[in-house]
Design a protein that fits this description.
By secondary structure, chain A is an alpha/beta fold. Chain A has helices spanning 48-56, 80-85, 103-117, 125-139, 156-170, 186-198, 238-251, and strands at 8-19, 22-33, 37-41, 61-70, 73-74, 88-91, 98-102, 149-150, 174-178, 205-210, 223-228, 231-236. Chain A has a six-stranded mixed sheet with strand order 6-9-10-3-11-12, sandwiched between helices. Chain A has a four-stranded antiparallel sheet with strand order 2-1-4-5. With 480 residues, chain B is of the alpha/beta class. Mean pLDDT of chain B is 83; it is low at 1-13 and 116-123.
């Protein structure tokens, strides 16, 4: 079902998550409405990436308690591929390579899997190339990249642009960008951010997970949340990100001492 | 989506060629002695020289021991329990496809091997071998206009005895090994192909093998001769019904390439692999060898082995002519309790000979996959070169991959390279695909196809598509 602007898309209540027996998220609450852009900020080890991966359905993350409602569904009941078919997209911090499979083929397979799930007709290779052309321009990648194996030998910037390209093609309802700014120089950052901005829409929500404020200079969030110790400790508008930039996490009374543990 | 229903569909789909065709067959009783061989020869109305060849092979076979050096675990074969000859009735001379038993045609339709109009459109000439005899060959007339001989081995014995006599056993002598000796004694039919000098065969030639009758062994014989400057691409496919017993398939394939000739031989092997517990399935013990007899000749083997309980074969090249070229591209997949011990031998005799080996082994379930290969550079093979690449992929932790590369070099100017890798499909790769909406089954099949790409790209187009689908089906149920 398609959500209109301001309708609740994602509702996370008192979420507790552990990895290998260590509790990472400890009672996290988050509400995201269609049309909004949320930024989740926090020091290393605060649980940012855990949140992103749990929402995407990664199995190593054990949900101990809490609920996640997404678009009228109990999200935690769905497998990772079902979530993707229901419109959740995660841009990976470290996209993996798949040797021998071209990016175009991979992306068309993904698109057709999702279309089959929705009882829509599959897209043939010719129509697919047609539809992907404009998206390729949007994220500023070389069209030749589509013929190379998925992320195989891609530079850091190419990998991140490829993630945004996939987001543009798969047209998600909820996009989660996990540290998309990491490893990007300022030009690449700007191109990626422009790509994301062009995908802002009334019926789509975007959750940007980031350590630094610099990405938020380009993607202006509606809400900013600070995550620390597995909980959201402060929420505000875009000025909160600027405050963080100025005073650091310590200035907000947030402890960065857990740096280095799993995020 | 109902998971139970989905699983059921997958389970039902496991081996879609496992049906039995209800045709009457005309068989010789099980068992093997000289009289059996005389009977086969009599039924086929063969010349004396061929009967003599069979008997010589049989007597030699009696002196040999069933070999046990392969890395496979198998039941003892009782050679007296095998039916050595089975032919669909009525066994009369067929003048055209219209006379073929409709049940048989229906079988080949089910297998996707349409013997008539469809194939005409796709331009593949097909020879279909059902149990022990060739039931239909398409396009023979059109090929004959070019001087190409393509049809059943029996017909070749009748119509071109001089060619058969000249080349039969010239690459794989009956003394070669236990199963080659057995085949030479009891082989019933198969395909024969001769491409005259200077002719480029305008279409793919294809043989489709089907074991149907219970208790039979299949012992076909294929002989392909490419005369000077000729070119041919040949495909073979094979399937069998599901049965609890292990059926033996012991074929011999001989290729001869004269000066400047090229033979490309592709196999998609999908014999019944046995059930998930390892009961039943075909023992696929085949001897395949090509002789690059003339200078600058080339023989290229491509095989995709997904079926059979045990696959045990080494399609090889004898590079006798100077500057001749041998290639071997292989994908072998073992799932459940399947075993494969396969690879190649490249024997460099002529000067400037080159060979390439690309082997991809995929093990899933309890499957055991062995690459065994020999690169043998003889003294006179000045400047010989070989490149070998053996990659293994493991799915799960109960399967095995093994590599036994043997290299013998007797000429100091030779260059021999060998690379080997082993990888496991990563959880990360599967999650990445899942997150894009691709199911785990599809993700595994996609990753495996990527792994096999170098081999698939050697296959003729339509076979490449079939091979990919086959891999996907063979992998079903292999992941958690």
């Amino acid at each position: 079902m398609n959500r209109k602007k301001d309708e609740m898309l994602l509702d996370v209540q008192d979420l507790h998550v552990s990895v290998d027996g260590t509790e990472i998220l400890r009672g996290l609450n988050l509400q995201v409405k269609a049309g909004e852009v949320h930024a989740i900020m926090g020091p290393n080890g605060s649980g940012k990436s855990t949140l992103a991966n749990v929402l995407a359905g990664r199995e190593e993350y054990q949900v101990d308690s809490g609920t996640v409602r997404y678009n009228g569904l109990d999200l935690l009941e769905l497998s990772a591929d079902e979530r993707a078919c229901e419109g959740i997209f995660m841009a990976f911090q470290y996209p993996v390579s798949i040797p021998g499979i071209s990016t175009a083929y991979f992306l068309r397979s993904a698109l057709n899997s999702i279309r089959r799930y929705r009882d829509e007709s599959e897209v043939d290779p010719i129509d697919f190339l047609e539809m992907i052309r404009s998206k390729v321009e949007l994220v500023g990648i070389d069209e030749k990249l589509l013929q190379r194996a998925v992320n195989d030998g891609f530079s850091g910037g190419e990998k991140k642009r490829n993630e945004i390209l996939q987001m543009a093609v798969l047209d998600p309802k909820l996009a989660i960008l996990d540290e998309t700014d990491s490893g990007l120089d300022i030009d690449a950052l700007r191109i990626v951010a422009e790509g994301v901005n062009s995908l802002r829409a009334d019926d789509r929500a975007i959750v940007v997970v980031t350590h630094y404020q610099r990405l938020l200079d380009h993607i202006i969030p509606d809400h900013v949340h600070v995550l620390s110790g597995g909980r959201i400790v402060r929420s505000g508008d875009k000025t909160l990100a600027q405050e963080l930039e100025r005073d650091g996490y310590a200035g907000l009374g947030v402890d960065d001492a857990r740096a280095g543990s799993r995020t | 989506m109902s998971e139970a229903k989905e699983l059921q569909e997958l389970a039902d789909k496991e081996y879609e060629f496992g049906f039995v065709t209800d045709v009457e067959s005309d068989s010789i009783p099980a068992g093997l002695d000289e009289e059996t061989i005389r009977e086969i020869s009599r039924r086929k109305d063969e010349p004396d020289w061929l009967l003599e060849y069979r008997l010589k092979s049989y007597r030699y076979w009696l002196t040999m021991k069933d070999p046990s050096w392969a890395k496979v675990d198998r039941n003892v074969i009782d050679y007296q329990k095998i039916i050595y000859y089975s032919a669909p009735k009525p066994k009369k001379e067929l003048k055209s496809l219209d006379e073929v038993d409709p049940e048989l045609l229906d079988t080949f339709e089910k297998l996707g091997i349409s013997l008539d109009e469809q194939k005409r459109l796709s331009g593949v000439a097909v020879d279909a071998v059902f149990d022990s005899v060739s039931v239909a060959t398409t396009f023979s007339d059109k090929l004959a206009d070019l001087g190409i001989i393509f049809g059943s081995f029996s017909d070749a014995v009748k119509n071109h005895p001089e060619l058969v006599r000249k080349y039969l056993g010239s690459v794989v002598p009956y003394t070669d090994n236990f199963f080659a000796a057995l085949n030479s004694a009891v082989f019933s039919d198969g395909s024969f192909c001769y491409i005259p000098a200077g002719v480029r065969c305008p279409m793919e030639l294809s043989t489709y093998f089907r074991i149907n009758a219970e208790g039979t062994g299949q012992f076909e014989r294929t002989l392909i001769v490419a005369d000077e400057r000729s070119t041919v691409s040949y495909l073979e496919g094979c399937t069998a019904p599901m049965r609890d017993e292990n059926q033996l398939h012991a074929a011999v394939v001989e290729l001869v390439a004269l000066e400047d000739a090229t033979i490309k031989y592709s196999t998609v092997q999908n014999w019944y692999p046995g059930d998930a517990e390892g009961v039943g399935g075909i023992y696929n013990f085949v001897t395949k060898r090509g002789l690059c007899k003339g200078d600058r000749s080339k023989i290229s083997w491509t095989q995709v082995e997904t079926g059979s309980a045990i696959t045990w074969k080494y399609p090889s090249c004898i590079l006798k002519g100077d500057n001749s070229v041998g290639e071997f591209y292989s994908v072998a997949l073992t799932n459940n309790y399947q075993q494969a011990d396969t690879g190649t031998k490249m024997v460099h005799i002529g000067k400037g000979t080159t060979s390439t080996i690309v082997s991809k082994g995929i093990s899933a379930g309890h499957g055991q996959n062995t690459y065994r290969g020999l690169v043998d550079v003889k003294k006179g093979a000045e400047g010989a070169r070989n490149y070998s690449q053996c990659d293994s992929m493991l799915l799960g932790d109960r399967c095995g991959a093994h590599t036994f590369p043997y290299i013998e070099v007797r000429n100091p100017s030779a260059k021999v390279e060998h690379e080997a890798t082993t990888s496991k499909i990563g959880e990360d790769q599967i999650f990445y695909c899942n997150q894009r909406g691709i199911s785990t089954e599809d993700a595994v099949s996609m990753i495996v196809n990527g792994f096999c790409k170098e081999v698939f790209s050697e296959l003729p187009m339509e076979f490449a598509v079939e091979a990919q689908k086959l891999l996907a089906v063979s992998l079903e149920g292999s992941v958690g």
